Amino acid sequence: MARITASVYTSHVPAIGAALDLGKTQEPYWQPVFQGYEFGKQWMKDNKPDVVFLVYNDHATAFSLEMIPTFAIGTAAEFQPADEGWGPRPVPKVIGHPDLASHIAQSVIQQDFDLTIVNKMDVDHGLTVPLSLMCGQPEAWPCPVIPFAVNVVQYPVPSGRRCYNLGQAIRKAVESFDEDLNVHIWGTGGMSHQLQGPRAGLINKDFDNAFLDKLINDPEAAASIPHIDYVREAGSEGIELVMWLIARGAMADVAGGAKPKVAQRFYHVPASNTAVGHLILENS
């Protein structure tokens, strides 16, 4: 059977992608950010998965105010990098895994989660920046990727609890797939940041690090954080952290297994007026 062996958590700041693409990674402002991902890049080489299930949010690229799915799974064979207004990022196209994606859709919908099935879409920085941070700048991404888009842009957005429970359903779906696959699940977005209004530029180190503590040691508590706390403490865009709970809900200890091992924990501020967080958890 397929199995989820690890989860990866990371911010997906668009300026990080621009810094990579423009060769600015060694500039004094950016060097500490990219240094924090050196472990993750080597870890990815040493623990190469067969498939990555990547949870992210679309930034009005594949979807718009005309159509806003709460949860959308990409089931296509490939996905092109999106043009977000200044041309597509110079990164490889994303190769999908239609068989596993379709199986997950079938299983999760049968577990009473409503998914939108997307057979064609471009993927924006929410998905490509995490891949660049963990995989560098290769000619091709090292494995197939299943995009899973979550609406955290237009209210109403799903609760942390809903996302956490969805992660458990995804784990069950993966484990019921009859091909022997090593799957990693990634939760991306966040951490604290606000892009507009009087609080633009808000960063809350205390909240971010407390969230990481809960995510590792008490995911039930993390899943219980109400929306208003994210907005109040982490800024209007801090709600993206609920996507990390999908990945955490898919880990083995949620089903009564052993507590996951923390392979990497990294936190840095600022990066383009946002906080950057990165975590790798391995199932025992």
Report on the structure:
With 284 residues, the protein is α/β, with parallel strands linked by helices. The chain has 10 helices and 10 strands. The strands form 2 sheets. Strands 6-3-7-2-8-1-10-9 form an 8-stranded mixed beta sheet, with helices on both faces. Helix 1 packs across helix 5, helix 4 crosses helix 6 and helix 6 packs parallel to helix 10.
Summary keywords:
single chain, 284 residues, alpha/beta, two-stranded antiparallel sheet, 34% helix, globular
SSE blueprint:
Blueprint: E1 3-10, H1 14-21, H2 31-35, H3 38-46, E2 51-56, E3 71-74, E4 78-79, E5 94-95, H4 98-110, E6 116-118, H5 125-135, E7 145-150, H6 160-175, E8 182-188, H7 205-217, H8 219-223, H9 227-234, H10 242-249, E9 261-268, E10 276-282
Parallel strand pairs: 1-8, 2-7, 2-8, 3-6
Antiparallel strand pairs: 1-10, 3-7, 4-5, 9-10
Helix pairs in contact: 1-5, 4-6, 6-10
